[in-house]
Write a structure and sequence with these properties.
single chain, mainly alpha, 1 helix, elongated
């Protein structure tokens, strides 16, 4: 009699993501009232922030459904993050 194969187990995960939607990097003075122009280039928009939040919730749900791949509370020992900046 052969032994059943071990259950597949998540050992490593790599996630690549692009930044969320941001205000333009170059501000053109197109509005009649200057205060109506974007005031801070490259700032995350509300939509971009919501996208990041939604993606984070989905990732957390995925990892929680995989034999608690991550602890229920954040642990820097479990996560490695690398980012780039212009």
């Amino acid at each position: 009699m052969t032994q059943p194969s071990p259950k597949n187990k998540l050992l490593l995960s790599v996630e690549l993501s692009r930044h969320g939607e941001r205000q333009p990097g170059v501000i053109f003075p197109l509005a009649k009232v200057p205060a109506d122009n974007f005031s801070k280039p490259h700032v995350l928009t509300r939509t971009g922030a919501h996208s990041h939040y939604s993606n984070g919730k989905s990732l957390r749900a995925f990892f929680d459904s995989n034999d608690n791949f991550l602890s229920s509370t954040y642990s820097a020992d479990e996560v490695y993050v690398q980012t780039t900046d212009r």
